Write the structure tokens for this entry.
Amino acid sequence: MRFLRFSLVLLLGLNGVALADIETNQSDMIKRMKTGGHILMIRHALAPGTGDPVNFRIGDCATQRNLDDRGRNQARSIGNWLRAQGIGSARVYSSQWCRCLETARLLEMGSVTELPALNSFYELTQNREPNLTALRKFIAEQPSGGDLIILVTHFVTISAIADEAVSSGEGMLLKLNEDAPYEIVGRINFRNADVS
């Protein structure tokens, strides 16, 4: 058994250490989410394709790229995973894009409020700075000891705020500070968010 472990460490190299760190970090992030004063940014669940059709309109899901059945299952599974960790509810905000709103509702973590600052600027690049300015202002106004906040948004928004790319249905945890900007805690990997 000792030889097997040694061989595994040799095969994985530093990745073996990284895997252990990820597990510890994930456990710490779950504890943080329960104590409040944090924001969980989640990229919408699986929605096949990239961007949106040229006739895209907010409020008209027929003109948008939407979740498929795997995405809907993934969103439900993320909510189930959060509840399994003892996180039963949160203040939930969403981009006005249908795939984000549907993800947010399927989490079943609380009522969902539309927040235009979370809207995508993937194709609407002129909205990048106004959206990010409004989002940073929103984050700065949140109480540093309040309940968990969930923001369901897009790849471009999370990348700009957290300086890290996330896949569909992954999240980034931010810590709210009383007298300073938010800080990045790390990536949340919803391991049990099965999309089969």
